[in-house]
Amino acid sequence: MSAGNVGFVGLGNMGSVLAGNLVGAGCTVLTHDALGPRRSPDGAEYVPDVAEVARRADVLVLSLPDGAASEQVAREILAASGRRVRYVVDTSTVGPAAARTVAGLLAGGEVGYVDAPVSGGVAGARARTLTVMYAGDDEACSGVEGVLAGLSDRRRRVGDRPGMAQALKLANNFLSATTLAATSEAVAFGLAAGLDMATMLDALNGSSGRSAATSDKFPAHVLTGRYAAGFTNSLMDKDVRLYLGAVGEQGGPAAIGAATGAVWARFAETEPGADFTRIFPFVDGT
Asked: Is this prediction's pTM over 0.90?
């Protein structure tokens, strides 16, 4: 594929895999991470700072922990002398307000912004089954089409302005957080009643209680004791808080959201940085 030089900033669990996907798709990839080159994928060129990425890349992809980090990188891009980058694709989960702020900053420097959070986990990224939900104006979305195709085989444009994809991602992660917490309580109840976990999951997956928690997270990480989905409880807590904040701005209903948020806040406070699938032993008290 041809997408020019692609910059990638943020090489965490997800970012390192996505950068590798771009290399595998035939892109020339320049990477940077605050913690250094350790997780830069084979075939990419690591560069020492964001400014150099901005000088050499046509499109710059972000995979960062929060909106403050995305805003900081956006300011570094705009401050770069000899800047070449024309578009920024933000795969981070930052919330609608932060996406609008970053888009506004970059627009002042004539850099287009595409809000493009991802869902499907690290395993989905490796398998290229990750869903990239993206939003932006027609010109920006057209300009980054080749880069989006390099990230994953599953892409869906969901809106024409930054922030819309963030809203959908937050809704998705709220549902994921709620079903995982609820499934943990339900399985704990079943075990206390003498049921076998594998038997429960098999029956649930053929019944109306089926969800990504019962079909994926529990079989792959809880039942096996692996607890290695590659996403932390601290990040899930952050995402649920972003969701509740956005709902509050709109004056929407949040009764279930408040209950879900309280569970994840307690879990993240008690075991900060734990894999989010460990919510089962946390809820179960084991």
From this structure: yes
